[in-house]
Description:
HAUS3_N, mitosis, cell division, cell cycle, microtubule
Amino acid sequence: xxxxxxxxxxxxxxxxxxxxxxxxxxxxxxxxxxxxxxxxxxxxxxxxxxxxxxxxxxxxxxxxxxxxxxxxxxxxxxxxxxxxxxxxxxxxxxxxxxxxxxxxxxxxxxxxxxxxxxxxxxxxxxxxxxxxxxxxxxxxxxxxxxxxxxxxxxxxxxxxxxxxxxxxxxxxxxxxxxxxxxxxxxxxxxxxxxxxxxxxxxxxxxxxxxxxxxxxxxxxxxxxxxxxxxxxxxxxxxxxxxxxxxxxxxxxxxxxxxxxxxxxxxxxxxxxxxxxxxxxxxxxxxxxxxxxxxxxxxxxxxxxxxxxxxxxxxxxxxxxxxxxxxxxxxxxxxxxxxxxxxxxxxxxxxxxxxxxxxxxxxxxxxxxxxxxxxxxxxxxxxxxxxxxxxxxxxxxxxxxxxxxxxxxxxxxxxxxxxxxxxxxxxxxxxxxxxxxxxxxxxxxxxxxxxxxxxxxxxxxxxxxxxxxxxxxxxxxxxxxxxxxxxx
Length: 487
């Protein structure tokens, strides 16, 4: 019995752990569902933002196309309409154009003379002479600097040598008793001094000569460097002026070529406008053809068809009868077979017809319909690139530029919906259906646990089950009671 109790306690603990795991799993799944719903809401908001952005860009594109159409119309009107007064120089008459070209060349030569000074050959010779004189002056200056530098160094060396002799003379070592000893010491000192002076003089002169040469060379290199730098600056300035002159000349040549092309186009257009030889030849040929046909009709004495379905003969009376018959049919009144009356009625009929046509065209309804038709044509021209935005003439109700973001958003939404459906089915199959299937086993385990630990609670559960079974129909109640009895 004790082993069974321990087994039941272990079973209860396992069941409690399973229930806790189930709750944790349920909470995790609920949290995942909440995260997925948040992602869906974020993607929905993003889709609406993308849709609004696409609409805004479509409106912006429409405005840009409208502005582009206006600018294109203005440019077309500017280049097709004859400008008065002329806007460009090539639109002037030929005399005024030549006068403008002459004034431009005068101003150009003045500008060249003021900004680009050209030296003569004599000026170049003078600069060469000045350069030689300048080099001679530099050489003389270098020699004089070398001479005076040497003299200065000699005097300074003498003073330093005298001072060194005074410093070397030690009176404590000289022991003089008589005048002969003084003379002897003086001679020895003179000889020693001369020897030292000779050695020092030679070494100092060698060092001095070397330093003077180095200094002079450095000085000359510095002067040459400055002179070369000045020449380089002048050469750079000349190069800049040459570049500017080249640019100005190239621009002037290109402008002249453009003006020449424009003049040729204007002359060609005017020539095509005033040369009507082909038209005159065609009219002359048509006139000759008509004269030939009339002569053939006069000679043949046979009926000939004419334009409009009428027919005539060489007899003038029959022609007048046919014309009068046609006019009577159209006018609804009798017209006499006379040339004057036929011409008068025909002129009257054509004048009334033109008045009726102008009245019909100028009426308010026709003008309103014409304006509406023009407005629809303009709207169609603006919206046609958006509707027929494809290689074929087929309508597309979405702009190609925004199809990819919309397609990506739709695919992401479908993928998230598919994941949600998969999670719901897994939850239904693994948790809900399992709970429904194991309901009898769980109730059995609970009743056994209550029977062993809390019998009173088991009795209360049986009574509640009986009360619930009494409220349902008989068959269901009998089934539930039999199940409770079996338990």
